[in-house]
Amino acid sequence: MKNISALRLLVIMLTFSSCQKVVSLNLNNAAPQLVIEGEITDGSGPYTVTINQSVDFYADNSYPAVSGAVVKVSDDRGNTDSLKETSPGVYSTNFLQGKPGATYSLSVVTQNKNYSATSTMPFPVPLDSLTLNLTSGFGQQRIDAIVNFQDPPAVANYYEFVEYVNGQPFPRNNFVFDDRLSDGKYISLVLRTDSSYISSGDLVRVDMYSIDENTYTYFLELRQSSGTGAFNATASPANPTTNVLGGALGYFSAHTTQSKSIVVN
Amino acid sequence: MIKVFLLFLLITSSISIYSQSKHTVSGTARDKKSGETLIGASVSLLEIPRTATMTNAYGFFSITAPAGSYNLLISSAGYLQDTIQVVLSQDISVSANLTPKNDELEEVVVTTVRKDNNVTKPLMGVQKLSVKEIENLPVIFGEKDILKSLQLLPGVQSAGDGGSGFYVRGGTTDQNLILLDEATVYNPSHLLGFFSTFNSDAIKDVTLYKGAIPAEFGGRIASVLDVRMNDGNSKELGVSGGIGLVSSRLNIEGPIEKDNGSFIVSARRTYADLFLKLSKDTNTRSSSLYFYDVNAKANYKLGDKDHIYLSGYFGKDYLGLGNSFGLDYGNSTATFRWNHILNSRLFSNTSLIYSKYDYDIKVTSGNNNVGINSFIRDYHFKEDLQYFVAAGNKINFGLDAIRVTTSPGVITAAVGSDNFNSSSVPDKQALQTALYFNQELSLSDKINVNYGLRAGLFSVLGPGAFYTYDSSGNPIDTANYGSGTIVKNYFNLEPRFSMSYQLNENSSVKFAYTRTTQNLHLLSNSTSSNPTDVWIPSSNNVKPEIADQVSVGYFRNFKDNQYEFSSEIYYRNMQNQIDYKNGAQLIANVNVESQLIFGNGRSYGLELFVKKKYGRLSGWVSYTLSRTERQFTQVNNDSWYPANQDRTNNLSVVAIYKLSKKWTFTTDFVFYTGNAVSWPSGKYPVNGQPVFYYTERNGYRMPAYNRLDISFTLQGKKTKKFDSNWNFSLYNVYGRENPYSISFEQDPADASKTQAVQWALFRWVPSVTYNFKF
Q1: What's the CA gap between B696 and A56, in Å, rounded?
Q2: Residues B443 and B547 in one domain
Q3: Domain boundary residue among B34, B67, B99?
Q4: Which of A265, B248, B558, B667 has the lowest tally of Cβ within 10 angstroms?
Q5: B644: nearest CB among A21, A146, A235
Q6: pLDDT at B228
Q7: From A162, which residue of chain B is nearest by alpha-carbon distance?
Q8: Which of A17, A60, A253 to mutate to test the interface with B (most CBs of B within 10 A)?
Q9: Taking CB atoms and an 8 Å limit, are A188 and B418 in contact across chains?
Q10: pLDDT given at position B561
């Protein structure tokens, strides 16, 4: 639980002698892995599928793009869109229009290997408003965004929220939520960040997606494995369970999207 | 006349033939000053060494020998030996009262007493820790701590700075059965592992069984930690305690009726959080971080043959952040026991025990007021009979029944709470019953055996819905059972065997085989255990864990028992070990069993131990070389991989030096290999952010841990009425930043790079404590 980590921090502060530093580790260099990220939304197209390769941990964060792949997305109504590579590693749709309730299938062929994935776009859940939450304690102030919406009862809903400050993402700006314990309730969810990313005068934008269960599982496991700080490490970090078949990393998600912004005063 | 005389002769001669039969001397060994019973004291007849025995957990002993006059010798570490002349013409009862030794510089005293029990007794892998021994050991925050001191012994590993619990021979923290006056303690730590729940003021005896576990114990597969509380001074009222920088404690004990009954109450509390009250920030001011605990016990002698005891423990931890978050948790136990001496050779103990561990989380966020509660609770009945058959032959047998209820998670959302619904995962019920038998037999002068059998039945009970799952974790079948009906039975036989062969007066070899099973499992999916980890019982999906352990050891005493050396190798095979699927949801999950995966475990190692038991300089060196591994179909392609708690090398050195009459210096040094961890071997982008790529579980190691501590104890003026000392200690003398965790993130200063960040908990931690005793 995230709150346990805050408490451990409290215990540490009282023992007034803990510390943090950057260390240099001897990490293995795995062979480059193929990464496929594809999204189909209910907004206006085109939609993109990005194909990259992984790099070593201590290398720069620039990932080699994979060009010349044959990428197709079909829906369950008989339409197939052959995506065009509009920039290195980025493949865009031509005419496909995302619709809630439809099932989309992705097919990627590169270097003589086949990869595929399917995702069904859920029905949209309206995001009513974006508000702000201020927490203070131990001399620190933290401003977090709050998303407010009504969860539809008797349906399993999965949500993803992506947050931007002044148009920019920040580490772990991706949140997921499911209604397992909250079915049918009016939700006011605080998007708790690890650090102070939001200050007075900033423009905060949150995109809310209604996602399918596979995408929820992917981003939940991703978040769990990427814990930072003294107490967020999980005992068994692993590669998130992907819905892409064939041996690639990444995900393919068909989701609805809406967005709200707020200026912090 | 002559006929009467001949008849008389006939009768008396037949009486004298009849009196060649055996008689028994029995009794209780106590501390002369306080009346406390002495556990594990050595008792024997000087003339027949084979009668050597040890007092049981209530100080009771019984020796049977042919009629005659003997010298009964009773001795115990820290006491002057007592000799009582006994004439065995009939069964007699004696009371042995031993005088405590003064803590002065002492010459080695040559006695005929068995200081060599470690060599002769067959039970192997048993560590006894005396509270007197740990008195001077430097521990964090200056608090004497049994658990922290145990971790300095071979085969026992610390769970790390700030980690609660300990690992024994490669087992996990929930694989240790921790008993306080026979009641199970489910969470032996306070404040997320910085303190343990054992207040040494209240503790008399600590025994850790890691190799050969007697048949009377069962329920966990790695070890049994048997902690016994003091009974209380039955001669006069006493008050003692200590005041420290971070916590204080108070102990009050005295007679209920002189020599016939006594009570003891020990309490302590930390107050580190008082500093928070000085803050200007309202949230910080209303935060709390403290624990308190109370140990209480009373006992009364009803007659020559009966004695009753009532003991209990209650502890609570409170952690709270302002008004937004609160966590409280704690153990409570109560034990009622009745000792009954059926005859001079048959001792009975009947126990009724209650134990509960629970936690409560309260979250207030915006309009939400949510509480999460979870508990595990036992009702336990035990009947134990000890039959002292003859010299070198002792049997104990009995029955054990525990009714366990676990409540894995109840969520209460107050009316008007927006985000959450109230929900509850139904309670689970189970009954664990066992019958056991154990015999200690001295086969010859050289060979002693201790063997036994424990037959256990674990019954999973209704009421409730019991699910079966497919391989993806979806429920495919639900079976409903009514209250009290049996859903599933698991029957297990646990043979226990150990043997010692005396090579010569000073050395022996020992062998042991133990099978143990475990039906309560702690689900914990983080790098260190949390107080909110969930206990679940075995069920239709979760099978009992089973372990088989074999160990062989060589033991030798030097210089008239002043030095003790032991070396043991062990191998333990474990079945039905539990691990978690990726992204497992363990909290308040009705289908928590669908999140589990099952596999095998094995651990093996070599333990070396040298101890200098007395003299101006005393102490020990303990070294363990070991490996503990797991094998699961779903992890690392079904190959054996090191468990999280695998630590190849583990070294502890402890030295206690009496500088003068007033000053004692103690130091300890600890070194161990780091835990096995999973680190990335690459990275890739998701939504523009770097995500780390893992190739295997536990393929890397944390850096090794090492630390030196020192402590000075200054003895104050000692009168008949008052005793005191000051203790100054420094934990982590060279301030090493021992890594607590390492995590990976984007470099905040350079978006094109990722970095590894290490967190360490403690550098130097000094402390000062004042201890007093009236």
Answers
A1: 15
A2: yes
A3: B99
A4: A265
A5: A235
A6: 94
A7: B687
A8: A17
A9: yes
A10: 78
d(CA A117, CA A245): 6
| Residue B415: per-residue pLDDT | 56
What is Dmax (Cα atoms) for chain B? 122
Q: Are residues B196 and B89 in the same domain?
A: no
Domains in chain A: ranges and CATH: 34-120 (2.60.40), 124-237+257-263 (2.60.40)
Q: Give chain B's domain count.
A: 2
Q: Give the one of A3, A54, A233 whose C-beta lies nearest to B693's C-beta.
A: A54
B166 within some domain: no
Instruction: Measure A3 CA to nearest chain B CA, in Å.
Output: 8
Q: What is the DSSP letter of B100?
A: B
**What are the pLDDT digits (tens) for A206-256?**
999 999 999 999 998 888 777 666 555 566 788 999 999 999 999 999 999
Q: Which carries the bigger pLDDT value, residue B644 or residue B425?
A: B644
Same domain (yes/no): B89, B215: no
Q: What angle do CA B71, B77, B79 make, to 5 degrees?
A: 65
pTM of the model: 0.88
Out of A11, A169, A183, closest to residue B421 by CB: A183
Residue B121: pLDDT band by 50, 70, 90 thresholds? low
The proportion of chain A whose per-residue pLDDT surpasses 70, expressed as a percent, equals 88
Q: Searching chain B, which residue's CA lies closest to the CA of residue A177?
A: B419
Among B322, B419, B684, select the one facing A137 at the smallest CB separation.
Answer: B322
Q: Do B680 and A27 touch (CB under 8 A)?
A: yes
Q: What are φ and ψ of residue A72, in 5° steps? A: -130, 145
Interface test with B, best of A5, A9, A11 (most B CBs within 10 A): A11
Contact B366 A133 (CB under 8 A): yes
User: What CATH number did the domain enclosing B12 receive?
Assistant: 2.60.40.1120
Assess whether pLDDT exceeds 90 at residue B255.
Answer: yes
Residue B240 has pLDDT above 50, yes or no: yes
> Is B538 found in the same domain as B426?
yes
| Chain B CB contacts of A187 below 8 Å | 418-419
Tell me, letter by letter, the H, E, C secondary structure of B193-253.
HCEECCCHHHEEEEEEECCCCCCCCCCCCCEEEEEEECCCCCCCCEEEEEEECCEEEEEEE
Average pLDDT over chain B reads 87
Q: In this predicted structure, what is the pLDDT of residue B586?
A: 74
CB contact under 8 Å between A234 and B325, yes or no, is no
Cβ neighbours of B757 in A, within 8 Å: 20-23, 228
The pair of structure tokens assigned to B307 is 């004695």
The conformation of residue B593, written as its DSSP 8-state character, comes to: G
Query: Using a CB-CB distance cutoff of 8 angstroms, which residues of chain B are in contact with residue A32?
Result: 682
CB-CB under 8 Å, A19 with B689: no
For residue B359, the one-letter residue type is Y
Whether residue B202 has pLDDT greater than 70: yes
Q: Tell me, yes or no, whether B615 and B515 share the same domain.
A: yes
List, for residues B623-643, the tens digit of each pLDDT value.
999 999 999 998 899 999 999
DSSP letter for each residue of B259-296: TTEEEEEEEEEE-GGGGGGG-SSHHHHT-EEEEEEEEE
Which of B81, B99, B117 is the last residue in one of the domains? B99
Two tokens, residue B462:
């209704």
Question: Given A8, A187, A217, which is nearest B418 (Cβ)?
Answer: A187
Tokens of A202: 């900033």
pLDDT tens figures, A45-93: 899 999 999 999 999 999 999 999 999 999 999 999 999 999 999 999 9
Do residue B87 and residue B195 come from a single domain?
no
Chain A residues closer than 8 Å to B590 by CB: none
Question: How many residues are there in chain B?
Answer: 774
Residue B674's domain spans which residues? 189-773
Examine residue B109 and state whether it is found in any structural domain, yes or no.
Answer: no
Q: Is residue B747 part of a domain?
A: yes
